[in-house]
Amino acid sequence: MTLAATDPDDRVEQLIILTERLTDLIAKEATAFEARRPQDAVPYLQETARLANLYRHESARVRANVQLIASASLERRHRLIRATEAFDAVLARQGRAVAAAKTVTEGLVRAIANEVADQRPQASGYGPSAGRGAAYRDNATAITLNQKA
Q: Which of 3, 85, 104, 128 is the most buried (most CB within 10 A)?
């Protein structure tokens, strides 16, 4: 998929629109993660992926052939630079939000696994199998999570 630009000004304008739309979608996703409601980001995922792919493709085309936008008006190119800076800022924000959500999720899984391990019966007794309880207790615990929860 590519932009159907008629001239450099049109290409830059389309890149601005694409960048601003992608920035808006990613900001909404970041807001959902920051609010600890990742499920609220789901409606944006498909469109974000589609636009991100188009953005990646078009930015690679422009990098490979700067002449595609070189003769666009200075004002439009400055608007594209500002849109790109805003996009970079929102990407950094989303990165921080996703990293925080990942840390929280990993902590929850670790806490659940530790709680399950603590609930295991302690081995006691005498004889060759008496020490197995401690080794059994220290092994990793498999848990199943309900994805609908």
A: 3
